[in-house]
Amino acid sequence: MKYAAAGAALLLLFLVVVIAAVVTVFTGPGSPAGYGCLTTAPSRTTDSGPAEGLDHEQSGNAALIIQTGMDLGLPARAAVIAIATALQESQLRNLPYGHLDSLGLFQQRPSQGWGTPRQILDPAYASRRFYNRLAAIPRWERLPLTQAAQAVQRSARPNAYAVWEPLAQRTVDAFTGACVMPIPGEQAAAAIAYAHAQLGKPYVWGAEGPGSFDCSGLTMRAYQAAGINIPRVAADQWRHGPPIPAGGEQPGDLVFFRMTANGPGHVGLVIAEGQMIHAPNQHDVVKIDTYRRADLVGFTRPAGRPSQAAFR
Predict the structure, then answer these.
(1) Cα angle vertex 143, ends 138, 146, to 5°?
(2) Residue 56 falls in the annotated catalytic set
């Protein structure tokens, strides 16, 4: 009998800890970089309370946008772009007015072929229209958020979308249950530990865990696990942190390859001299590899991570 009571007590303690962790995800102050987590939590619905940084109305609209993207089978990156766009265009509010004939969450215009006013003011319809146009953009998952959003919206202020990316990513993580408390300890070691735990998982374009990754999805999640927010795509990650000269790279630095007009097309995480963990391509898995390649572009150190002893 006493063993049964002890087991019940342990189960109760476990549930309390889990509930406390989930509550912290949605109401806590988060990490120094604005992220509080990266463990799996229950998915949220439009009936849930407000997400961190949003009120009830905004959270309800965010949940609907995210759910619509999931129903369409799109990766989480699409929802991040959609939420950032709606934050910029309407502050995530279903506005019955706007510039000229712009309306709704995304300030879509009937005169530009988005639909009738009644349709545009239906958040589910407006979200589907946004996603349909986004999905029609070639290789949209690889574009910086500003370029992807601008290709859909044709805004007069395209760079303004980038301001909302951290909040959009945090909101999508919270609503889709991709969030947990950051790993304690030194940040570079935490990022490397996270990446190492993903070894052998398949590459999927646009994926950011937990079962598969693309290259920048892996590095973004690794640094989230260390409590540091970095952008989602490799080109933006390249511009995010200070450049590190070749020979000065350290474990935890990002290493970039294949320079394109938008920026590097591939990224890995330095783990030792000459070695990195990365998600190479759709025919491979997350693995340890050399970064001494002909297409090497350079290194950066994510903002917020202190330097440490260089390789000897």
Answers:
(1) 120
(2) no
